[in-house]
Amino acid sequence: MCVGASREVRKWWAEYLESCGEWEQAMQFYETANDYYSLVRILCFNGQTSRAAEIVEESGCRAAAYHLARRLSVENDVSFQNRRILKLKIKIFQTCNSGP
């Protein structure tokens, strides 16, 4: 990949890598393209919701927050019943509902 590649090209390349199952490389390119939604989507798919939550908090990306909140709301894992996760869910939903 060319060093000076545009954001759109990096995102396109990340999508290609993801389609080939190259998750780690795809995530690197999504990150350089500032595509936090796609990054969170892959992390959630791979069960890395804690890392996804960190990215949501750091980026403030509402689309990523909404995706993570939806994922957590249907999660059946007992560990998501504790207070820490409940607070995280509330914060994520608040991020989704914040201004533009």
- CATH topological fold name: Serine Threonine Protein Phosphatase 5, Tetratricopeptide repeat
Fraction in beta strands: under 5%
What is the residue-averaged pLDDT? 82
CATH superfamily: Tetratricopeptide repeat domain
CATH architecture tag = Alpha Horseshoe
Q: What low-confidence regions span 5 or more consecutive residues with pLDDT below 50?
A: none
Helical segment count: 6
Describe the fold and architecture.
The chain is mainly α and 100 residues long. It has a single domain (7-97), classed as Alpha Horseshoe (Serine Threonine Protein Phosphatase 5, Tetratricopeptide repeat). Helix content is 72%, strand content 0%. It has helices at residues 7-19, 23-32, 36-45, 49-59, 62-74, 83-97. It is globular, with a radius of gyration of 14 Å. 29% of the residues are buried.
Features:
100 residues, mainly alpha, Serine Threonine Protein Phosphatase 5, Tetratricopeptide repeat, 6 helices, globular
How would you sum up this structure in a few lines?
The radius of gyration is 14 Å and the shape is globular. Helix content is 72%, strand content 0%.
How would you summarize the topology of this molecule?
Elements: H1 7-19, H2 23-32, H3 36-45, H4 49-59, H5 62-74, H6 83-97
Helix pairs in contact: 1-2, 2-3, 3-4, 3-5, 4-5, 5-6
